[in-house]
Every structure is written in C-alpha cells, then in structure tokens.
Amino acid sequence: MSGPAPVALDATCAEDCLHPDAVARARAAQPPATCVEEASALLKAVADPTRLRLLTALSTGELCVHDLALVAGISESATSHQLRLLRDHRLVTAHRDGRTVFYRLADQHVTLLLTNAIEHARERPSLR
C-alpha cells in the first residue's frame, strides 16, 4: 500500500512534499533570521564549559570576579574575559561597589536556560 501522493509546496521546494501541512506549520513557526542568528550566538556562548561553570556559579547568587575565578579554577584575567563575552550576550549584568565588580545572571530567561540544560544533561543515566 502506498502513502499519499507527493505535493509540491512552492517554487522553493526542490522536492515533492509528502506532508505539506506539517511543513507549512514548521515554516510558520520559524523565527526571523536575525532572531535565529542571535539565539545561535547565545547558545554558543553558553556552550563553553568555563562560561557554563561561571553561569552555574552565578545561579547561586551574585559573585565578584575574584570569587568566580576561584570557582571556575581560572585566573581573574581569564574570568574577566569570559564575563565580558557573557555580558555582550546579555547573559550577565554587573555593578561596581568601590573597586569590586559583582556579577549576576541577567534575568529569569538565563536562569531557566541553565536549569533546563543541566536537568537535561542529568537525565543521562551515566550523569546521575
């Protein structure tokens, strides 16, 4: 028994499509290209193990550069460099108290992103 006959969706579809409604829904759900690029860059920033350690540390509360360096096991200079990238992607915010700069997660979106990523990773039987 054969399935439904293929239907060409439009001029951009090089192949005939077996499920035009599903493809139409998926296309309609696509965010604008600039949004996709921004989200991809954000996920790349989070994907670095050192930056993920910094973000996870900040999920416990505000920390200064020195304390973050201790948690991540890297120099303060390297920590500042990573934090600058995280600030550029609006993942963390900073404020100065005298000579000390304190960092925190930018908002609940970042907290949720971290929580979901860590929980998803912990679902692997070898990581429990």
UniProtKB/TrEMBL annotation:
<protein>
    <submittedName>
        <fullName>DNA-binding transcriptional ArsR family regulator</fullName>
    </submittedName>
</protein>
<keyword id="KW-0238">DNA-binding</keyword>
<keyword id="KW-0805">Transcription regulation</keyword>
<dbReference type="Pfam" id="PF01022">
    <property type="entry name" value="HTH_5"/>
</dbReference>
<dbReference type="GO" id="GO:0003700">
    <property type="term" value="F:DNA-binding transcription factor activity"/>
</dbReference>
<dbReference type="InterPro" id="IPR036388">
    <property type="entry name" value="WH-like_DNA-bd_sf"/>
</dbReference>
<feature type="domain" description="HTH arsR-type">
    <location>
        <begin position="31"/>
        <end position="125"/>
    </location>
</feature>
<dbReference type="InterPro" id="IPR011991">
    <property type="entry name" value="ArsR-like_HTH"/>
</dbReference>
<dbReference type="InterPro" id="IPR018334">
    <property type="entry name" value="ArsR_HTH"/>
</dbReference>
<dbReference type="InterPro" id="IPR051011">
    <property type="entry name" value="Metal_resp_trans_reg"/>
</dbReference>
<dbReference type="GO" id="GO:0003677">
    <property type="term" value="F:DNA binding"/>
</dbReference>
<keyword id="KW-0804">Transcription</keyword>
<dbReference type="InterPro" id="IPR001845">
    <property type="entry name" value="HTH_ArsR_DNA-bd_dom"/>
</dbReference>
<dbReference type="InterPro" id="IPR036390">
    <property type="entry name" value="WH_DNA-bd_sf"/>
</dbReference>
